[in-house]
Amino acid sequence: QDRTRTVKCDVCAGTPCMARGMAPSAPSLSDMKVSAVLPFVVMMISRGMDLEGLLGARVIRCIFAATLLATLSVHVCILMRVRALSEEGRVKVPAKRQLGQLIEEAKEVSCRQYDLSMLKEKCTQIIMSALVCWGVTLYWGGCTLLILHTTMLPCGLLDLELFKIHILGRVAQGKLRRPFPSTDPLGKLFSGKPEGREPREKKKDKKHR
């Protein structure tokens, strides 16, 4: 009888797949993030109900500011819990490359130091994106971008690994294992190689050895 053998492969991130070269199965609905679906739903509702005309620009700006403050407050709570961690546990942070150039060398830090650096990076992204969104709205007018960003803030918080670990109390294993995958689209686009994978040449050399 023709039997197929399941193996652990790098493409499927450790999940069993068919060993005969078959393509991995498509992600299920449970694996999809809320942040990937909710913006389209909000845009359809905004266009259908005319939220800008219904609520007014001032109310939408106040809701945006309140959502931003609430999101940053949750990050402050995460910061307090991260600072309470001990220096035990080590994380091997891979090197960061952009446009083929080395930006930051690979290093090994404690879990506490790694979480602090990731939290600082995330807060910087939130503040910078909020300032850009606010500036664009003031210059060109309209509140569609504010409505979209208001929904993206809590979605990004729910998808944050640090929120799941320190607030929801989940164990840092599997998809929550440190180091976390990069969330910067520009970093993924201009990086020299995909994160967490070795070049094919190195893998071939290891096989010959």
UniProtKB/TrEMBL annotation:
InterPro entries: SND3_fun. Residues 179-209 are annotated as: Disordered. It comes from the Eukaryota. One of its GO terms (biological process) is protein targeting to ER. Keywords: Membrane, Transmembrane, Transmembrane helix. The chain crosses the membrane at residues 62-82, 126-148. One of its GO terms (cellular component) is mitochondrion. PANTHER family: SRP-INDEPENDENT TARGETING PROTEIN 3. This is Uncharacterized protein. It comes from Noctiluca scintillans.
